[in-house]
TrEMBL record, chain A:
Keywords: Cell inner membrane, Cell membrane, Cytochrome c-type biogenesis, Membrane, Transmembrane, Transmembrane helix, Transport. Residues 13-184 form the Cytochrome c assembly protein domain. The lineage of its organism: Bacteria, Pseudomonadati, Pseudomonadota, Gammaproteobacteria, Oceanospirillales. This is Heme exporter protein C. GO terms for molecular function: heme binding; heme transmembrane transporter activity.
TrEMBL record, chain B:
This is Heme exporter protein D. It is found in: Cell inner membrane. Keywords: Cell inner membrane, Cell membrane, Cytochrome c-type biogenesis, Membrane, Transmembrane, Transmembrane helix, Transport. Belongs to the CcmD/CycX/HelD family. The chain crosses the membrane at residues 20-37. GO terms for cellular component: plasma membrane. It is a single-pass membrane protein. The keyword Transmembrane helix applies. The lineage of its organism: Bacteria, Pseudomonadati, Pseudomonadota, Gammaproteobacteria, Oceanospirillales. Pfam families: CcmD.
Length: 250, 63, 222
């Protein structure tokens, strides 16, 4: 097992392996997202209370799940990079951050839009939306910190430390915001407590979540490969790889 | 099918602007990240190839 | 332990020599508090409602401002590198530095807050809790903030970035700190809030020094 981990560490080996894995994840993502969207938008029954505006759940919840999972996987790859000095792990962490921020924004935007018909206002200090907003600031902090250093190695290590500190704080922030929200809870309907969903509403949600996750894996593989090309540009194997392609085109 | 006709589907029972704006922004962002990733890879490969070609011609003329 | 005490004493004397710098966060705190009655309204009833939150946010921002100078002077004159080379564990030494920062900013802010509370017509009975929760809370704020300060000490314009990194992590402390004062005003139990503030402090006391040490190593040979 350890040989596999070590091989994963070498950018060259990762570059070739991810090329094989990537198409599978793209195919899975497209299939799941199309099926989930059609099912959620057209075939799932409307919610008895909210009518069709509840269909926003099929993008809001997967984006929110992904936003949190990406931060955790970013922190884990940061830890792997700091402890075992596996460069590919840091490349993956660097590449995940923008997608995580985008997913958090999607969750926030769709939550706010969903709030308009349900609460009548664009922004409600709902516990989950507030935690999502704080998560967005954590993402921006990690991205800004990584960009602030001139030397890449200290940028990677600084960003990894911040990601790890952040991931420890996420549950603390979540619980304190939930506690704060229940203390100041307005009487209206909240996103936090929803009646149990019947299966024909719940199943497309699972498909959409799986679709979002395979999209995340596929995109991370692809962008990590670009990051490998960017960082290993002067290595021999990259030049041979490119030379091979240059001869082909001539 | 939860809707009788396609136009009813578009109307979303009066919630059309909310549902379609939320889904639209999500689709837009997903496509944008994919497009950015592909453009980034294309630019990188182009740069590497240009460098390789320049080194080849330099080595060619040096012999 | 002697080394930790030595850094403690050294930093205390260093900072007390520049007494002006020690007063800056306190003056900032008072200034920010006086802005609100001007901006919102001098009416005591309204001020009393927002007083706990205002006092806590202003104290938090004052503590945040003073963080930048925590490592900056030692970084500039190179003594931070000596600290890294010291045989003693860096986490213990950075804990000493954070303790000095708390003694010279957190504690004074906490002691000064009741005075400003009077200006904001803070209801009676919550002054002691205000000072206690601030004293407890600013300790965790210094610890968490020191991680951000250590990460950004090597950067030229680290100030704004420091607040972007650290403010999200301050939110739990703010929630329970301001919550404690509000609970004191309403008269119901304050023990829960102070207990959680204590727990947050214990957690950051245990974890923050290692993160500070790691961040200092990153910034120094960055």
């Amino acid at each position: 097992m350890w040989a596999f981990i070590h091989k994963l560490g070498s950018p060259k080996w990762f570059y070739t392996i991810s090329a094989k894995l990537q198409p599978w994840f793209w195919a899975a993502a497209v299939l799941l997202l199309v099926v989930g969207s059609l099912w959620g938008l057209a075939f799932a029954p409307a919610d008895y209370q909210q009518g069709n505006s509840f269909r926003i759940i099929y993008v809001h919840v997967p984006a929110a799940f992904l936003a949190q999972s990406i931060f955790i996987s970013m922190a884990v790859s940061g830890l792997v990079f700091m402890v075992w000095k596996i460069k590919v792990a840091d490349m993956a962490a660097a590449v995940m951050a923008p997608l995580g921020a985008a997913m958090t924004f999607v969750a926030l935007f769709s939550g706010a839009v969903w709030g308009v018909p349900t609460w009548g206002t664009w922004w409600m200090w709902d516990a989950r939306l507030t935690s999502m907003l704080i998560l967005l600031f954590l993402y921006l902090g990690v991205i800004a910190l990584r960009g602030a250093f001139t030397s890449r190695d200290s940028a990677s290590r600084a960003a990894s430390v911040l990601a790890m500190v952040g991931v420890i704080n996420i549950p603390i922030i979540k619980y304190s915001v939930d506690w704060w929200y229940t203390l100041h809870q307005p009487a209206s309907f909240t996103l936090t407590s929803r009646p149990a969903m019947p299966t024909e509403m719940w199943l497309p949600l699972v498909i959409m979540v799986l679709g979002f996750y395979s999209f995340f894996i596929a995109l991370t593989l692809m962008r990590t490969r670009s990051e490998i090309l960017r960082r290993e540009a002067n290595k021999r194997w990259v030049q041979d790889l490119v030379k091979g392609q240059v001869e082909e085109t001539r | 099918m939860a809707f009788a006709s396609f136009s009813e589907f578009l109307a979303m029972g009066g919630h059309a602007p909310y549902v379609w704006s939320a889904w639209g922004v999500t689709a837009l962002l997903l496509l944008a990240t994919v497009w950015h990733a592909r453009a980034e890879q294309r630019l990188l490969l182009k740069g590497l190839k240009r460098r390789a070609r320049r080194e080849n011609s330099a080595r060619g003329s040096a012999q | 332990m002697i080394a930790v005490k030595a850094t403690l004493v050294r930093d205390l004397t260093l900072l007390l020599r520049r007494r002006g710098e020690v007063l800056n966060p306190l003056v900032f705190f008072a200034l920010v508090i006086t802005l609100f009655p001007i901006a919102i309204s001098p009416d005591p009833e309204l001020l009393a409602v927002i007083a706990p939150g205002l006092l806590w946010v202003a104290a938090l921002l004052a503590a945040l401002l003073s963080l930048d100078s925590l490592f900056r002077s030692d970084y500039d004159d190179g003594s931070l590198e000596q600290l890294l080379l010291a045989p003693q564990p860096l986490a213990a030494l950075s804990l000493a530095k954070v303790a000095v920062h708390w003694l010279l900013t957190g504690l004074p802010l906490a002691l000064m807050a009741p005075v400003l509370g009077i200006m904001l017509a803070l209801p009676a009975g919550s002054y002691a809790i205000l000072a206690l929760s601030l004293a407890l809370g600013t300790a965790s704020l210094s610890l968490i903030g020191a991680i951000g300060a250590a990460l950004t000490v090597g950067l030229a314009r680290g100030g704004v970035l420091l607040s972007l990194l650290v403010l999200p992590l301050y939110i739990p402390v703010l929630i329970f700190g301001a919550g404690a004062v509000q609970a004191a005003i309403l008269g119901d139990g304050v023990a829960a809030h102070l207990a959680i503030l204590g727990a947050l402090l214990a957690a950051s006391l245990m974890l923050a020094p290692w993160a500070i040490a790691a961040s200092l190593r990153i910034s120094i040979n960055g």
